[in-house]
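for the writeup, i need someone to sanity check this before i put it in the appendix. the sequnce is what the collaborator sent (i think, or maybe the updated version? ugh). structure was predicted straight from it, no edits. if anything looks off just tell me and ill rerun, i have time this weekend
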Amino acid sequence: MMNFGEYIRYNAFWFLDTLKGGPLKRQLEETNFILSSSDSSTVNQDNLNKLQALINHAVASTEFYKNVTSRNLEDFSVINKNSICKNLKNITSDKFKLKNCKKVCTSGSTGTPFSVYYNKDKINKNVADNIYFSSKSNFKIGDNLVYLKIWQEVFKRKDLLMLKLRHISPRSVYDLSSNGIDDLIEGLNASKKTINMMSYASALEKICWHIDKKEINPIRFKTNSIITISEALNAYTRKAVKNYFGVSPMARYSNNENGILAQQISESDLKYRINNSSFHIEIFSLKEDKKLNHGEMGRIVVTDLYNYATPLIRYDTGDVGMIELDKENRPYFAKVLGRKLDLLYDTKGNLISEYLAAKIWKYGRFKQIQLIQKHKKEYHICLNTLTKIDEEKLKMEFLSYLGDDALIKIKYVDEIPLLKSGKRRFVVNEYYL
């Protein structure tokens, strides 16, 4: 049930869209049709038509693609962040004036920072995708949103005004000390507003671990929805968020250069519904540019069907996952394991799920953890905790996953630093770079 302020904001948003000719409404209808349809043949044909139109445009209007003689996707090479950095001008279409496009930058916190340009249709499609996937977490336009991530230390006045108009409360992950978490909760309790939250998964985890130490749950505000971004959502955080906030978090897989690639859309189903209304997504081998079948783990390679300003065709996101089809032949990520640099391998070189790190939590009460592969057979488990643990028991369990010949070292640390983006890597591979 909307309150008066939410009602006004919701209707004002759609009224302004109507005055502009309804571009967002049309994009949202398109998104709804594709993502809700059980007619896979129609959806696939729509996807192929968009893909062919994008390829024709890219070849005709960019220096980078002009020498591609084929119009088949299979004949396009895989590109990556380095390719874009070196060739941004040549990849960007000459059909658009850059002053009329939106420049989008990535943080480069775990890789190479770079920029792309969005044309107007791409901007509108991203907004429509956000509306659609947010609604699956019970969040809608006009609702109050607490947004936990890294923010600029100083906002421009227009940025602050825009956040206020959108009813977004920016909160920095750097403010999550014990006192900072207490202040955040007390402030939200005092506001008496129903809260929606978008947050790095690690920030929520830190809040939940802080609440674990208290005798009673200090949260008195009502939470309507929580969406986690940028990092894997582990089992502990999912369960603790449900316990303390009263709602099940939905994990979103997205990036700045593309938008929302997939999201969990039901608390009873942990599959990530792929956003095939905006993207054509393929899985490639970890070691070579070879396309894999459904059910095989590999690199996530994205073709953005709406970005005509900077066409990204077969773009390697740097992440790893596995695609499968549901009973209605709709694609979903059965696994999203994060970046290739965050993957673990056993002593024989076999890939292991990064969720192995989550098994550490059962051995004690930790502020932070990190699992590092230092060498082919050497692993470090870094623990930020006030008490020692049963090291031998932990080592014995991890030997069963990593290999009997693994060298496992347990290190007690005062802090596991955040990345520049405010995120924290739970798994680091320093050997397979």
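The longest strand covers residues 315-325. Residues 8 and 142 are 8 Å apart (CA to CA).
thx in advance!!
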